[in-house]
Structures are given as structure tokens and as C-alpha cells.
Write a structure and sequence with these properties.
This protein is α+β, with helices and mostly antiparallel strands. It is built from 11 helices and 14 strands. Strands 6, 7, 8, 9, 10, 11, 12, 13 and 14 form a 9-stranded mixed β-sheet that branches. Strand 12 and strand 13 form a beta hairpin. The protein starts with 7 loop residues before the first strand and ends in a 6-residue tail after the last helix.
Length: 428
């Protein structure tokens, strides 16, 4: 038997150990290998024996440690604690906010086919405008945030501005400067004469009116397109919609409204559109082109839908449907609610390391609380344009009503549940 003063040189695989017969090590003498049989494997239900040793001395006894796995065979799924508000939010999302995928796909196809057909007829036009090969389909129908019903879609119609230059004018806006006229040859045709405003800038109003005329001719010649109606051009600054198509039979219930928005896109620059903000400081301006970050919006929305089990995305859809249907909440459009969602996510990612674990009611109440705080501060700052307030020119009485109503719902759960139950469909 080896004594306690003997040396252990190494512990090798296949359960072989090397031992010395003398007290002092002799590196030149052959060593005898002693085979140690491995212990039998224990039953997993009884535990796993792990041999540990301090290696301070070989005389110390080896104490086995038992590691038990009691939940390995009888573990139960941990379900969330039932919550009164969560049940009503889930029912509201299923019965009110959600739209069947077939309806959304049908609306997308109708919109894409109509615009593609019109674009094919605009390749050659009287204004010599070079339109993009494909339109940019934006809005709730195409980014997956449509709620309640699908009756309206937005389409950006980009065109080449040629030698025109874009210049920053104020926060959230740019102006388009046409090329100077040729003084040496005054008879040379001015390509942008039809679009110049009184201040010699490219006017978004005149551009929208000119493209409206081109679409009107495209729908009639050479053959009139059935079931597509172009509404007369009306400059309504508060709406910002000037070119509207109605796809469907006259007086039909399933007609689709398509808002066509002329746009200009430079390399590495945001898209500039003729459509002003809802509460614009100067919506009837003949020189201001608004920033549009629809492509970035869609990327964020799609990413949110894949993260945190989709709870923030679902909470946003419920809030949007709630603000759309509830008559006591007016004046908040989809872009404002998206801005609240983007700022909320930015704060959550920076401040909360476990933001993915929030449940549905926590996400919804967080959005509602942030909306209430932004209204009280009278400021919803554009997520992409720093310093631009989306509600700076909202009517005072309308803003006061929103502050009172949203603030009350954010602090009174019973009133919120009452409104959610109000729109529920009773089971049959």
C-alpha cells in the first residue's frame, strides 16, 4: 500500500493512475501502472455522485457530494398570474384591433396593381418627369400596424429632381432649388417652369397639382381604366392629401382609398414629400418639403414585432385601435403613437436590462403613461428629427381634452377596463 508521502504524478484518461513505491521520487525508474475500475453510474432519480478532494494530502478522505434534480421529472410550466386588465386587453386585441390577414393581403395587392398600372402609363408624360420604376408603399397597411379595418393606403411616388438641389431650411423641412435659367439662351425651354413658385423655389403645391393632372390623363388614355376613380384636386392644408384614388365600384362597401404622395429622394438623404404634418406651422407653404422616414419606421416596427414575444407591438396596436375608435380621444394620428412607441423602446433599452420580460399589461400601461406625460409636457418630439414638436400647433382646447382624458385613463384602471369592455363582442 502506498504511504501518504508518496507522490501522485498525474491523473490520466481511462482511469489509470501512476504511483511510486518509494518515499522519494525516482524519475529514472520505471513506473507501475495500476488500473482503477470506474465506479458504476448512479441512477438519475437518486442523484449524481461527484467526487471532490482538496488535494492537500492523500490521507484526507474523499467526501461525495450529492446533486439532486427534483424538477427534472416533475417540473411544471410556470404560467403568468391571471390579471383582470390583461384578459380585457387580449380580448380587445382579438375582437377589435386584429384584422384578418386575407383582408390585408387583398388590400395590398389591389393597391400595388393599381399603382403599377398607372406608373406604366407615366413613363412618357408632358412634363418630362422621370418617375421611379417602383413606388414606395408605406403606411399601416404595409408595415403591419393596420387596425380595426383596411380602407386606406399611402403610396409615395418618387420622381427624379434632375439638377435641382435640396437645401436645409428649418427643422424638419427642406427646400428644392431649381437650376438657374440659361441667360445666354433665353429661348431655351425651362423644364421646371410649371413647378416654380413665386419665390422661385420648387413648390410642393404645384408639383402635386401637376402630377394629379398626369394621373388624370393616364387613367383616360388610351383606354379608360375601370373601377379606378381619381378625386378632383383640392388643396386642403390641414389634411395634406391632394391626390386620392378610389379603387372599387362606385358606392361599393369594400372600396380602397389610395393616397398618392409625390416625393423626392436624394442619395443618403431622407425622402422629401409634399404632404405636411397634421399640425404644421405653415401647411400651405409653397416652398417647404417635409422629411419622411417611412423606410426607417418600417424597419423598427418589424424588429419590434420579433422582439420580447411581440408584447410591445401588440400593446401598440391595442393603443392605436383604442385611440381610433374611442370618440373621446381625437387628434392623435398613427405617426404620433409610433413616435411614443419609439421613444419608449429607446428608454427601455437604455434603462431596463430586462425589458423583454414585461407582460402585455405592463407594456400597454407604459405606452399610455408616456403618452400622458408627453401631452402634459405639450411636446411629442419627432423620433427622427430632433427638436421638432409634432403637437406644437395643436388647438389648445383639443390638447386640454386629450391631457385630461389620457391622464385619467392612465391612473384609473376601472375606467380603462370599462371602455375596453364597451367594444367587446358578447360570445354567442
Amino acid at each position: 500500500m502506498p504511504t501518504t508521502s508518496q507522490w501522485v504524478q498525474s491523473y490520466r484518461p481511462h482511469h489509470y493512475a501512476v504511483a511510486k513505491r518509494q518515499d522519494r521520487p525516482n524519475l529514472y525508474k520505471k513506473q507501475k501502472r495500476v488500473k482503477i475500475e470506474p465506479p458504476p453510474l448512479p441512477d438519475i432519480t437518486e442523484g449524481i455522485e461527484v467526487e471532490t478532494s482538496t488535494f492537500r494530502s492523500l490521507a484526507s478522505s474523499i467526501k461525495p457530494r450529492i446533486i439532486l434534480f427534483p424538477g427534472l421529472l416533475n417540473e411544471k410550466t410556470i404560467l403568468p398570474v391571471p390579471n383582470h386588465l390583461r384578459d380585457h386587453l387580449e380580448n380587445y386585441y382579438t375582437q377589435i384591433a386584429t384584422i384578418p390577414s386575407d383582408s390585408v393581403d387583398s388590400a395590398r395587392q389591389r393597391c400595388q396593381k393599381s399603382i403599377s398600372f398607372i406608373l406604366s402609363r407615366l413613363r412618357v408624360n408632358k412634363l418630362d418627369l422621370k418617375f421611379a420604376k417602383e413606388a414606395i408603399f408605406v403606411g399601416s397597411v404595409f408595415d403591419g400596424t393596420a387596425v380595426v379595418s383596411v380602407t386606406e393606403a399611402d403610396v409615395l411616388l418618387p420622381f427624379d429632381q434632375g439638377k435641382c438641389q435640396c437645401e436645409f431650411l428649418e427643422t424638419g423641412y427642406m427646400c428644392i432649388i431649381p437650376p438657374p435659367r440659361n441667360k445666354k439662351n433665353p429661348k431655351e425651354r425651362d423644364k421646371w417652369k410649371w413647378a416654380r413658385g413665386d419665390d422661385m423655389y420648387i413648390s410642393p403645391i404645384k408639383v402635386a397639382k401637376g402630377i394629379h393632372k398626369l394621373i388624370e390623363n393616364a387613367l383616360k388614355y388610351p383606354v379608360e381604366i375601370p373601377n379606378i376613380c381619381l378625386l378632383p384636386f383640392q388643396w386642403i392644408p390641414t389634411s395634406g392629401v391632394h391626390i386620392v384614388l378610389i379603387v372599387g365600384k362606385p358606392g361599393g362597401k369594400n372600396n380602397l382609398k389610395i393616397n398618392i404622395i409625390p416625393a423626392v429622394q436624394e442619395d443618403h438623404q431622407p425622402i422629401l414629400v409634399t404632404r405636411p404634418y397634421q399640425y404644421d406651422d405653415n401647411p400651405a407653404s409653397s416652398m417647404l418639403w417635409r422629411y419622411c422616414n417611412k423606410i426607417k419606421e418600417e424597419k423598427i416596427i418589424k424588429t419590434v414585432g420579433l422582439a420580447d414575444r411581440g408584447y410591445h407591438h401588440k400593446a401598440f396596436l391595442i393603443l392605436k385601435a383604442f385611440c381610433t375608435i374611442e370618440p373621446t380621444i381625437e387628434g392623435l394620428n398613427s405617426y404620433m403613437l409610433k413616435t411614443i412607441l419609439f421613444h419608449t423602446l429607446a428608454d427601455e433599452l437604455d434603462l431596463s436590462p430586462r425589458w423583454q420580460r414585461d407582460n402585455l399589461e405592463a407594456c400597454f400601461m407604459l405606452l399610455l403613461t408616456n403618452l400622458s406625460q408627453s401631452l402634459r409636457a405639450k411636446k411629442i418630439e419627432d423620433f427622427f428629427v430632433s427638436g421638432h414638436n409634432l403637437i406644437a400647433n395643436m388647438d389648445f382646447h383639443q390638447l386640454s381634452k386629450l391631457i385630461s382624458r389620457i391622464g385619467y385613463l392612465a391612473t384609473n384602471e376601472s375606467e380603462l377596463v370599462r371602455l375596453l369592455k364597451k367594444r367587446r363582442i358578447s360570445p354567442t
